[in-house]
Please model this.
Amino acid sequence: MLDNALRKAAAVWVAPAGHDARLVWALWRDDTVLVAVGGSEQRVPGLSDGVTCTLTVRSPSTHSHLVTVSATARLITPDDETSTALRTARLNTTPVWDSVYRLEL
Model:
């Protein structure tokens, strides 16, 4: 169920330990969730390398809760292919971000 939900989700809710959840654009790629934050993208207070967070996926059509899991955020430096995929996933805008995290489930 998780894999299917993440394949369809364009955004997920991320709540770093001790902080409120924030809706962020997400990309399911190579069996991992990637989120780009800061800059023109959503800021997620408390999100940093090694932080445990709660990841919630909602239905893109009904917005109903699908699944909530624990994840560990890992700061990455995206390669050109990953950066292009993140930008393409945003469709109507050209995002600029400060950081990209891989959320390890």
Summary: The first helix runs from residue 2 to 8. The chain has a mean pLDDT of 91. The first strand starts at residue 11 and ends at 16. The domain at 2-104 is CATH 2.30.110.10 (Pnp Oxidase; Chain A).
